[in-house]
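## retry 2 of 3
previous attempt timed out at serialization; input unchanged, resubmitting
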Amino acid sequence: MIRILLMVLYCLPFVPYWWYQLCHAAKHTDEIPEEKKYALLKKVTLRANRGGRVKIEVHGKEHIPQKESFVFFPNHQGLYDVLAVIEACDRPFSVVAKMEVKNIFFLKQIFTIMKAKFMDRDDVRQSLKVIQEVTEEVKSGRNFLIFPEGTRSKERNHPGEFKGGSFKCAMKARCPIVPVAMLDSYKVFDTNSIRPVTVQVHFLKPLYYEDYKDMKSTEIAKLVRDRIVERVGEAETDMCLKAD
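## retry succeeded, writing output
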């Protein structure tokens, strides 16, 4: 978490004003247009990344649907993942997160502004309720990000098992499923270092309803994971070649 301190120190002249703006937007999130709230999040994230010596390298931006709501499904590396996608994506989105991160300082305000949904993994009934709420919101036009692993991978750039249930809301909403390959996101908040780091965000070709309508959720989960694993492998190979 030492990098968060570096971000705060770099942005110190702006912190009081931005903190006021974030708290105000969180308190009045229903009254402020989505585009205006998202612009604030991007502005704060861009400045914080600069101060924290974090560069976001974006690939496949053309794969983000522009005329319909969608759900992002990235591999999960750590607390920084959502902030990386905020900088990389121009379309506002919300997120489904685990209950344990609901009250983490700074992220609490970010999640409130985004109207995030929090899932209690130990409460099946509550989890089903969240899936239904997300389904209805996607149908009404809101975009979401869901981590299909359910928790961060202990293998860093290499994803764990993707859970089929994570895809139920997208299936019910019949919306595009956008795989997202994350590389080196864990280095930002989950290592005790302030060395410059480049995080890669790869938006992969979406799966549209016609592509997956006859598939089971477990089959979709495997397909999305396989595509992310393949892209991560290609990106790591590219990095090795550049290093040589």
